[in-house]
Amino acid sequence: MKRNRGWLLALLSLAALLGCDPPSQADPARYGTVSVFIDPEWLDADEARIRDELVILGALGPRFVEAGEGGRSTARVIVQPFDSEGCSLGAGRWIVGSRVVEIDPTCTPGDTAFRQAVGHEIGHALGMGHVCAHPGDAPDCSPVGFGPAMMAPTLGGGGESFDPMLAQDEPTPLDLAEYRRVYARDGGL
What we know:
Blueprint: H1 2-17, H2 28-31, E1 33-38, H3 44-57, E2 63-67, E3 77-81, E4 92-94, E5 100-103, H4 110-125, H5 173-185
Parallel strand pairs: 1-2, 1-3, 3-5
Antiparallel strand pairs: 4-5
């Protein structure tokens, strides 16, 4: 099994170099819909980047839709801005036990880092754990394997910092496996 995982990672790396489309298990008929409320405090440009990330997250399986006005009370995930005190609290965080994901856009330089933070924290809100590159990278590594992932653990303050060189911009096969693991464990979302 370990040998097969190594070949899979090598093939995925080659596919990325050749510019092949990223993997996807988009199947709303199987995985349903996840509603996301985008707090109205966001700047228009940030709202657009969050919407872009929701499209990218569709590769996990469910269809991600924006909950409209009044959707805060019913949305599966709420994405809101926060002030991380000069990035000392990290760029993003999921408030454990809640539906709330918070991102400090000043701590996520550029579109890619911002989207990574949003996708990573939404993954946590859905129950996904960290997919580590190596054993011991974080105390909560997922059992799905090791390698590059959107759910890669990152360090920083009381929240998480996002380094575009470490985290992936789109779900990888390991992220898809982590989503399937959590989906099966929780009996669906």
